[in-house]
Design a protein that fits this description.
Number of strands: 2
Radius of gyration: 22 Å
Shape: elongated
Number of domains: 1
Strand content: 5-15%
Helix content: under 10%
């Protein structure tokens, strides 16, 4: 048995995560709560945050606050 998240727009069901099966299955559909447009997230894709997050060059440098413990 698998559970997946999907959005129903009044016409079709749109999965918001991959479906891990390759054969036919009987399904039970449960409507949980209405959604607004802002709450619908797109599926995560690897590399989608590329260029949006940075780490300073001295990230691994020792912190002055811990000098006495080192």
């Amino acid at each position: 048995m698998y559970a997946i998240k999907a959005i129903y727009d009044g016409v079709e069901f749109k999965p918001i995560q991959p479906i891990p099966v390759n054969e036919s299955y009987k399904v039970v559909i449960t409507f949980i709560e209405p959604v607004n447009k802002q709450s619908i997230r797109q599926p995560f894709e690897y590399g989608s945050m590329n260029g949006k997050i940075w780490v300073s060059d001295d990230f691994d440098a020792p912190l002055d606050d811990f000098k006495e413990y080192m």
